[in-house]
Amino acid sequence: MTLHNLGQVYCHLCRFEEAIECEQRSLALAREVGYRWGEGGALELLGLALQHTRGRESARECWHEALRIFTEIGAPEADGVRDRLADSSL
Q1: What's the DSSP call for residue 15?
Q2: How far apart are CA 75 and CA 67, in angstroms?
Q3: Residue ranges of the alpha helices (H) in 1-90?
Q4: Is 70 in contact with 81 (CB distance < 8 Å)?
Q5: 56 near 44, Cβ under 8 Å?
Q6: Short-list 33, 40, 34, 26, CA closest to 70
Q7: What is the mean pLDDT of residues 70-80?
Q8: Can you tell me the distance from the alpha carbon of 61 to that of 42, in angstroms, rounded to the nearest whole number?
Q9: Residue 48 has pLDDT above 90, yes or no
Q10: CA atoms within 13 A on the CB side of 48
Q11: 82 pLDDT higher than 90
């Protein structure tokens, strides 16, 4: 969670490369311990950072995976990710 929170701070500061680094580490740890919500959260924020650095296709890949995870575990965050994917400007 600390890495994820740090990634959020970096995103708010528009320091997207640092955010990507934090979220990739957060994602790896969440997968290692089987923390599904953590995986989804890391992927959602990773997508946001990637959208600003590497383009929306990279972001959409992360968001699709986050949506799948959030849907599987019944997390309400699935709605926000679904909305992000449906946004026609993306």
Answers
A1: -
A2: 9
A3: 2-12, 16-33, 36-53, 56-73, 77-86
A4: yes
A5: no
A6: 40
A7: 97
A8: 13
A9: yes
A10: 22
A11: yes
pLDDT of residue 5: 95
pTM of the model as a whole: 0.92
Look up residue 32 and give its amino acid. E
Amino acid at 70: F
How many whole angstroms separate alpha carbon 66 and alpha carbon 81? 7
Which two three-digit tokens encode residue 70? 């959030």
CA 40/CA 59 separation, integer angstroms: 13
In this prediction, residues 55-80 reach a mean pLDDT of 95
pLDDT at 72 over 70: yes
Grade residue 67 by pLDDT with cuts at 50, 70 and 90: very high
Please list, in sequence order, all residues whose beta carbon lies within 8 angstroms of the beta carbon of residue 56, skipping any fewer than 6 positions away: 90
Give me the domains of the chain, ranges plus CATH numbers.
Answer: 2-86 (1.25.40.10)
